[in-house]
């Protein structure tokens, strides 16, 4: 090509930065240019000011910038760079909640440390904004201080003329002038908007609109009054102030209009009734493919997971919920993140580990004593482990994308349910949530709560029906010819068969009659089953099931001992072929091959070997863990045909059968025998029917003695599943873990619990109401010089009304049967129309009910009924109730009702009603229906009344053509009796409240009744209505005090004091202070740090044992024996006498005395648990067993020392090892190496042989 000639010369780049050599030459070769004569500018001594307080203040600096690569989330391809602030400089796990803080120590990577801060929980946006705003204000102050220091050190013109420059540039002209003062202030006052429009959720600003003294009533204890005021506040009162309302931000994700029942602010129900035709379009490349066609609910869930949404899958048993969890794991593997799968029990964690291990490469298991592959992409653990990781700031949380909560309906568990709520609350915002559950009726409400506290939309996906329908039968056979007596009572469509029930009842009764004819009435009357009849019944049942190909079967029995007994009775039954026996024998021997010789010869092991070869198994908590796993694996292989199990088999292990049999539908719940709840029955019956193998599942109820009542059966079989209900409670561990983090408070967690879900939904409304009330009341002109006598009367009457409202439920349910009967004279009021007056009971609604819901009462009426109080002579004196309070209808609503209630206490007489004859010559009257709370008094007087005649006659005369008729004599007599009593109320005798109710041992209620009666009598004897000031001033005083109470109540409902557990929280804080775990400022002390290491069970007790040197002189075996009282749960086990171990016996008494001291401290601080009850929870039933085991005895030998079953002993020792490890960690904190060494020795002494045999699922 021809070269193009250069037109311009190469000038190079312009010089921007001067050359250093040129500057040096200028400085050295031309000294005349140096300003040596300007000494005032060159030689200055600046004396720095010394501010020692600044040494205690941390000065934040501008955050440095770093370059960070940007990658595509799916492929990881580099797409660019971006500059980001390194705001986490200097932040560590010990001082920061940020996800960008420096990683912790390597050995703390998995479980974290009790000295670490947790990561900032998701949904705590309000608290985070407040914290950031406070930091911004501090930064503004620091910048002002630095500017002032700069002006002292340098010349002002340096900002305009740089050094060596002759001229400069002023930037002042380039600065924009603020438009107005308000804009300028808005840029500085970061809280102005908050003060203008909003209220902090728990921090209500103080009202200065009214000048009054605080109420003498303790609002926190007036739950009934709070409820009363809440009910009276009308939501439509704000219809004219829409511009003032603030709506909480809600994620608007779905663009499809949904019906009201399928969408809530933070939850949305997915319609699974129609096939998902566009699934392949939404998910063209699945992260994990399945060898079968997915169900509709599974497709919807997977589509939402691909969109990185949060889901709540509430599906029937065996519907395939695990598919959703598997897909989330596959996504996390694809995204190079991690997933945590939580289960309610350790056995289910082990089973899921094996299942996922067969599907995914990188799977880990974390339990109390086992850690397998902790760096895996998916970690399986119990929910308690995850809670500990969250509180301890585990670095695993950083990489977490999904948390799967399996069996989340376990939240209903009274002992452990609170753990699920804590974990949901403490999860950081970057973690997505998957909840798997059986069907629950309030899935939307629960999902909305989760979404609201995490500020994430939750999609609820439910199944419409079971994949394998169930058929329910009654079995009345007892072996022999009756072995096939089975009757269908509930078909697969859910229809109850009355014919099947009647046939079953007839068959049972006919055979019982023949039995009585054969053996006599006495034998039939005893109606008892002996061992032979039990054996005959079960052998007949198994033959029937085998003949109809209904095996395998799970027989639920609500007793561990009965399970063992039934299995022994079936020793003559053989359900396996020779080949199956050989397979069972080989698997069994291989499973126990790692046990030492003496353990392989345990009676339970030998018995199970023989039992399993016949295809029969037993599953309950008393079985050795390794044997339970053998049973589970053989059951999955269809080699165990008959399994006797307790209820726990249905709660955890997912192993469906062809048939489920109920040995009984009654169970003992700790207090007495009762029929199974629908939720319990559904959970266990749901194990029947194997998907892909059975067309229907069979559920059989054994009727050994009597046929259950039909209502009992229908309620149990067709009732709804249990609703998810909060079991949230406060523990010392939770309180201490939160107190050590200043940025989070216990109240922050309490108010986000499911327990407070309903209250949280009302918060925005209450804030609006408080804003409106404060604004309106500020416009009122009150006369504050009210008579104190009237104020005191108002407060006393209000308290009296409040006490009565709290007593109403008790009085209603305990009123004697002979009190509320026709003819009884009562004092009733039905405000605002009818004030207090005498009446006579005509009937109860429903009739002859006790207690009745309502009463029909005959009363006298007057033309003044229903008139305003101004019309009755009360002066408002400028209060102008209808005008100045216009728009504050929550104050006006029921205004007359409350005023009328107080008037009752202002008169000395029992009533203040004077009837008048009408023009026809009788007293006007009416029959009204009153609620129980509208009956003020019961009188000792009774009159004879013909209730039906009176009611019919009054109805007749209400018609216009009979209106002028005179009442018949019996009606007129009743009217005259009522008139006499209203004219002379002082002659009427009342029945004291304590004589109106049946006898009770509750002294608190009796004292409360007496206090109410005394307060009422005192108020009425004051006869305040006789004072001239009463009618001229009380209406105004009442209006003022009513507004004051409304404001106080709204402030109370928006404060932490309204939390249900606030009183318990305050009591526990007092306990921690009293015992030295925190100081007066709630700062965690050394004892508190030790308690944080102790998990969530008996943390105070273990800490006191450690810090009181209880283990200092005890040998390792005795240490283990003493700590066993903290983990042994069986109640009905007699404590060993320990006569041969005097030192151990002495230490046991020391532990009980220590526990008694904690119990007494709790009682003194307001906790209701009696001290002795606290002591009784520490059980030493296995102290001797653990002591001998730690000394080296074999498992076979220690079994001779107790009647406790093998499985319970193993479980106790395993939990004991976890407790010993916690104490060892505490020894590290307090710096006691000898205690640490002793704990290691104690752990080594118990950690051996069959007790710690590895799980078969992990092999």
TrEMBL record:
Residues 540-739 form the Helicase C-terminal domain. The keyword Nucleotide-binding applies. Keywords: ATP-binding, Cytoplasm, Helicase, Hydrolase, Nucleotide-binding, RNA-binding. Residues 302-458 form the Helicase ATP-binding domain. One of its GO terms (biological process) is nuclear-transcribed mRNA catabolic process, 3'-5' exonucleolytic nonsense-mediated decay. Its main location: cytoplasm. SMART domains: DEXDc, DSHCT, HELICc. It holds the Pfam family DEAD. One of its GO terms (cellular component) is Ski complex. PANTHER family: ATP-DEPENDENT RNA AND DNA HELICASE, ATP-DEPENDENT RNA HELICASE SUPV3L1, MITOCHONDRIAL-RELATED. This is Helicase SKI2W. It comes from Folsomia candida (Springtail).
């Amino acid at each position: 090509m021809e070269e193009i000639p250069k037109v311009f010369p190469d000038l190079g780049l312009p010089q921007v930065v001067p050359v250093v050599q040129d500057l040096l030459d200028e400085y050295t070769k031309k000294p005349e240019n140096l300003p040596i004569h300007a000494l005032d500018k060159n030689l200055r001594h600046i004396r720095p000011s010394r501010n020692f307080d600044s040494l205690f203040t941390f000065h934040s600096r501008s955050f440095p910038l770093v370059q960070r690569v940007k990658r595509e989330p799916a492929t990881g391809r580099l797409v660019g760079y971006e500059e980001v602030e390194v705001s986490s400089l200097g932040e560590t796990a010990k001082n920061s909640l940020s996800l960008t803080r420096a990683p912790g120590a390597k050995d703390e990577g998995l479980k974290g440390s009790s000295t670490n801060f947790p990561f900032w929980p998701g949904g705590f946006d309000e608290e985070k904004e407040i914290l950031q705003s406070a930091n911004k204000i501090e930064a503004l102050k620091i910048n002002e201080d630095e500017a002032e220091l700069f002006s002292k050190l340098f010349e002002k013109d340096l900002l305009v003329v740089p050094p060596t420059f002759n001229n400069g540039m002023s930037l002042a002209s380039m600065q924009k002038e603020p438009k107005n003062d308000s804009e300028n202030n808005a840029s500085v006052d970061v809280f102005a908007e908050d003060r203008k429009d909003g209220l902090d959720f728990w921090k209500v600003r103080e009202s200065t609109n009214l000048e009054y003294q605080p109420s003498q009533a303790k609002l926190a204890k007036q739950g009934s009054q709070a409820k009363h005021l809440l009910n009276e506040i009308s939501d439509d009162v704000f219809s004219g102030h829409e511009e003032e309302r603030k709506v909480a931000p809600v994620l608007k994700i779905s663009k499809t209009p949904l019906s009201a029942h399928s969408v809530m602010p933070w939850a949305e129900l997915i319609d699974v009734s129609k096939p998902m035709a566009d699934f392949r379009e939404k998910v063209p490349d699945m992260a994990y493919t399945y060898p079968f066609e997915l169900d509709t609910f599974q497709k919807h869930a997977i589509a939402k997971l691909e969109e990185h949404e949060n889901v709540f899958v509430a599906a029937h048993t065996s519907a395939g919920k695990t598919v959703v969890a598997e897909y989330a794991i596959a996504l996390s593997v694809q995204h190079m993140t991690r997933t945590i799968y939580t289960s309610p029990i350790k056995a289910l964690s082990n089973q899921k580990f094996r299942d996922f291990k067969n599907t995914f490469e990188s799977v880990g298991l974390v339990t109390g004593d086992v850690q397998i592959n902790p760096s895996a992409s998916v970690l399986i653990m119990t929910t308690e482990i995850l809670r500990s990781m969250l509180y301890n700031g585990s670095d695993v949380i950083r990489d977490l994308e999904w948390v799967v909560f399996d069996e989340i309906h376990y939240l209903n568990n009274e002992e452990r349910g609170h753990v699920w709520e804590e974990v949901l609350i403490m999860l950081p915002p970057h973690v997505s949530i998957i909840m798997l559950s059986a069907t629950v009726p309030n899935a939307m409400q629960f999902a909305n709560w989760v979404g609201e506290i995490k500020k994430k939309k939750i999609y609820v996906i439910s199944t419409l029906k079971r994949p394998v329908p169930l058929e329910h039968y009654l079995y009345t056979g007892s072996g022999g010819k009756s072995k096939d007596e089975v009757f269908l009572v509930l078909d697969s469509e859910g229809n109850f068969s009355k014919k099947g029930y009647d046939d079953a009842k007839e068959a049972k009764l006919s055979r019982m009659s023949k039995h009585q004819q054969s053996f006599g009435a006495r034998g039939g009357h005893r109606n008892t089953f002996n061992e032979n009849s039990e054996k005959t019944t079960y052998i007949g049942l198994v033959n029937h099931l085998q003949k109809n190909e209904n095996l395998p079967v799970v027989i639920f029995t609500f007793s561990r001992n009965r399970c063992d007994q039934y299995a022994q009775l079936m020793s003559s039954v053989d359900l396996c072929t020779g080949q199956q026996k050989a397979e069972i024998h080989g698997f069994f021997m291989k499973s126990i091959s790692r046990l030492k010789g003496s353990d392989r010869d345990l009676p339970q092991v030998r018995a199970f070997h023989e039992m399993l070869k016949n295809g029969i198994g037993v599953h309950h908590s008393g079985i050795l863990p390794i044997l339970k796993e053998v049973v589970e694996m053989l059951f999955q292989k269809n080699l165990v045909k008959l399994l006797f199990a307790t209820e726990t088999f249905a709660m955890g292990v997912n192993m469906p059968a062809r048939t489920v049999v109920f040995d009984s539908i009654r169970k003992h719940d700790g207090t007495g025998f009762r029929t199974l709840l629908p939720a319990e029955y559904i959970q266990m019956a749901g194990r029947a029917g194997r998907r892909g193998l059975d067309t229907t599942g069979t559920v059989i109820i054994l009727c050994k003695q009597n046929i259950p009542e039909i209502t009992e059966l229908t309620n149990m079989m067709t009732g709804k599943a249990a609703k998810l209900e909060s079991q949230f409670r406060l523990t010392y561990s939770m309180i201490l873990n939160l107190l050590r983090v200043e940025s989070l408070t216990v109240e922050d967690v309490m108010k986000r619990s499911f327990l407070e879900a309903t209250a949280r939904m009302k918060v925005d409304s209450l804030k609006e109401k408080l804003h409106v009330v404060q604004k309106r009341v500020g416009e009122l002109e009150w006369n504050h010089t009210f008579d104190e006598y009237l104020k005191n009367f108002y407060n006393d009457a209000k308290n009296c009304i409040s006490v009565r409202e709290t007593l109403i439920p008790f009085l209603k349910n305990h009123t004697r049967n002979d009190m509320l009967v026709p003819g009884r004279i009562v004092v009733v009021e039905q405000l605002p129309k009818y004030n207090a007056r005498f009446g006579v009971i005509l009937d109860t609604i429903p009739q002859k009910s006790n207690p009745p819901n309502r009463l029909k009462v005959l009363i006298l009426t007057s033309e003044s009924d229903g008139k305003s109080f101004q019309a009755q002579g009360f002066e408002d004196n400028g209060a102008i109730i209808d005008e100045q309070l216009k728009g504050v209808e929550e104050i006006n609503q029921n205004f007359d009702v409350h005023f009328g209630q107080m008037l009752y206490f202002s008169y000395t007489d029992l009533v203040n009603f004077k009837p008048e004859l009408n023009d026809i010559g009788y007293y006007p009257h009416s029959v009204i229906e009153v609620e129980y709370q509208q009956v003020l008094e019961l009188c000792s007087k009774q009159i004879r009344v013909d209730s039906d005649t009176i009611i019919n006659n009054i109805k007749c005369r209400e018609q216009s053509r009979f209106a002028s008729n005179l009442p018949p004599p019996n009606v007129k007599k009743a009217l005259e009796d009522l008139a006499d009593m209203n004219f002379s109320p002082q002659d009427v005798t009342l029945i004291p409240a304590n004589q109106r109710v049946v006898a009770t041992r509750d002294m608190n209620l009796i004292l409360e009744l007496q206090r109410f009666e005394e307060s009422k009598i005192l108020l009425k004897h004051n006869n305040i209505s006789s004072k001239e000031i009463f009618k001229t001033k009380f209406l105004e005083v009442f209006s003022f005090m009513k507004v004051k109470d409304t404001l106080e109540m709204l402030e109370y409902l928006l404060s932490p004091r309204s939390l249900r557990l606030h009183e318990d929280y305050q009591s526990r804080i007092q306990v921690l202070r009293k015992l030295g775990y925190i100081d007066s400022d709630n700062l965690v002390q050394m004892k508190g740090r030790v308690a944080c290491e102790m998990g969530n069970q008996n943390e105070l007790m273990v800490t006191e044992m450690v810090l009181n040197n209880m283990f200092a002189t005890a040998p390792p075996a005795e240490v283990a024996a003493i700590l066993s009282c903290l983990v042994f749960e069986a109640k009905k086990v007699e404590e060993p006498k320990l006569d041969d171990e005097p030192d151990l016996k002495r230490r046991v008494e020391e532990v009980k005395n220590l526990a008694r001291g904690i119990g007494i401290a709790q009682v003194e601080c307001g906790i209701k648990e009696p001290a002795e009850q606290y002591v009784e929870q520490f059980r030493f039933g296995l102290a001797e067993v653990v002591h001998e085991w730690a000394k080296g005895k074999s498992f076979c030998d220690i079994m001779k020392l107790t009647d406790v079953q093998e499985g319970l002993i193993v479980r106790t020792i395993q939990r004991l090892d976890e407790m010993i490890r916690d104490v060892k960690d505490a020894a590290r904190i307090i710096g006691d190496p000898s205690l640490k060494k002793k704990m290691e020795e104690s752990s080594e002494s118990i950690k051996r042989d069959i007790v710690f045999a590895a799980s078969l699922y992990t092999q």
